[in-house]
Amino acid sequence: MGWGLLVVGCFLAFLIVKWVLRSLNCWYYERKLGERRYDLPPGDLGWPFIGNMWSFLRAFKSRKSESFISSFVSRFGHTGLYKVHMFGNPSIIVTTAEACRKVLSDDESFKPGWPSSTVNLIGKKSFLGIFDEEHKWLRKLTAAPVNGQEALSIYLKYIEESVIEALEKWAGMEQIEFLTELRKLTFRIIMYIFMSSESEHVMEALEREYTALNYGVRAMAINIPGFAYHSALKARKNLVAVLQAIVTERREQRRKNSQSVKKDMMDALMDAEDENGRRLTDEEIIDVLVMYLNAGHESSGHIIMWATVFLLKHPDVLKRAKAEQEEIVRNRRPGQNGLTLKEVRQMDYLSKVIDETLRVVTFSLVVFREAKKDVRVCGYIVPKGWKVLVWFRSVHFDPETYPEPKKFDPSRWDEFTPKAGHFLPFGGGSRLCPGNDLAKIEISIFLHHFLLNYKLEQCNPASPVMYLPHTRPKDNCLGRIRRVST
Asked: Any signal peptide, and if so, which residues (predicted)?
């Protein structure tokens, strides 16, 4: 009896301490809001210092990633907005299309609000750390070379040649980590666009550092050996050193040959000049390169892998997608060698396969904003200075927009165009990913050649799925690429 009372007493004491600490955390951040705190959305700010990060990481390192948001829904209802304490800041999670559209499109009320740890890793002079006129200028400068008919037509040939070469190489290997090889392929492509070419040794070194960098982006900012963020900071330092050497060498080449023709994005960045005659510093150029090289290969590589896996698991979808690609080849003009941009635009069903993959996977699960002033969103107040986490996963898995949302079904896109804010694979508003068109073309070219000539045999079809830093099989899709008979 005595031991039983002691256990009960300890349990009650734990509950009291837990309640006190959580209440103290709420009081600390809400006390300055005065009467405004009554207009905050429901939720909780978790524990002092760590906030809700333990529950976030626990959910996303398990097989039940959706449990993080569902726990708020079960406790507070389908309100669409929830107050939390994430990545070191009091924040509001927005989970509905209406709220996401408001936050992403209202530049007068919201600015980038990425955690300082993420900004430190990607770069203070990258898009994550700049806004207003500086962002508009740099975005316009960097978006032009990766968009438009002429630019995309130029890159298409290089992408196709790289894809054909990679598939032939993989087919001759006993087994590969499909995702790892895809990331190398997409990294080679983005390196070509930004730097024309670099040695295989340099590309492999950079790609390895990016792997370590990405593991720290969603981690807690603990700069102690053994933690992901500490390793990511070291990777960032190594990346900057390599890129600085490349930038220095390019500047020297241009100094010796001032009449050289612009070749790539690096030349464009070095030639950029605003209305006041200001040019980009090496630090600014390097931060832009770190950001673009990372975003330009991670998302494409993962989406190609998942699209391939989904096709493998849905033979009816694969059959229809392959038939479309065969039809494109049959209708090709005599003597034509390789794909054209027009043919890529005609891949209607394959485009639906890609969109459905983007929806189901939701590569970027969240983006961060910060309220410039007190803002009312869907009936709740977002206080000035608080972070806003735009939760794409909830939007893409809304059963009212996407019936049976966990089901992979490209046919759901037949005669269906989602309303604004309901499909956000590349973000939205003024910060919509500038390379989204290039990414979809890159994915389409790969799947075109894969569907016509190859198949994937996974070694571990039931491999557990990891959700951080990005959704992937634990074994990186270990398997074999085999050429199919035609």
From this structure: none
E strand intervals along 256-374: 366-371
433 labelled binding-site residue = yes
Helix 436-453 and helix 315-330: axis angle, to 10°? 90
Distance of CA 53 to the CA centre of its chain: 20
Exposure class string for 160-181: b at 16+ Cβ within 10 A, else e: bebbeebbeebbeeeebbbbbb
Residue 229: name the closest of 129, 121, 113 by CA.
Answer: 121
- CA 483 to CA 417: how far, in whole Å? 36
Q: Which helix (H) or strand (E) holds 73?
A: helix 67-76
Phi, psi angles (nearest 5°) of residue 387: -80, 155
Q: How far apart are the first and last CA of the chain?
A: 78
Q: How far apart are CA 449 and CA 457, in angstroms?
A: 16
Query: 74: burial class by Cβ within 10 Å (0-12, 13-18, 19+)?
Result: exposed
Q: What are the tokens at 271? A: 């030639």
Question: Around Cβ 263, how many Cβ atoms within 10 Å?
Answer: 12
What is the gyration radius of the CA atoms in the chain, in angstroms? 24
Model's pTM, two decimal places?
A: 0.91
Task: Phi first, then psi: give them for residue 80, nearest 5 degrees.
Answer: 90, -25
Greatest alpha-carbon pair distance for the chain in Å reads: 91
Of 244, 334, 323, nearest in space to 289 by CA? 244
Q: What burial class does residue 189 get, using C-beta atoms within 10 Å of its C-beta: 0-12 exposed, 13-18 middle, 19+ buried? A: buried
Answer yes or no: are the C-beta atoms of 119 and 128 closer than 8 Å.
Answer: yes
Mean pLDDT by 10 residues, the chain (486 residues): 65 61 74 90 88 90 89 95 94 96 95 91 89 84 72 87 97 96 93 78 83 84 88 94 91 80 79 85 91 88 97 97 96 90 96 98 92 96 96 95 96 93 91 86 97 97 91 96 85
Q: Measured between alpha carbons, how far is 438 from 225 in angstroms, rounded to an integer?
A: 38
Q: What is residue 432's DSSP assignment? A: S
Domain boundaries, the chain: 17-483
Q: CA-CA distance, 194 to 203, in Å (whole number)?
A: 12
Crossing angle (nearest 10°) for helices 178-195 and 149-171: 140
Q: At what angle do helices 348-361 and 282-313 cross, to 10 degrees?
A: 110
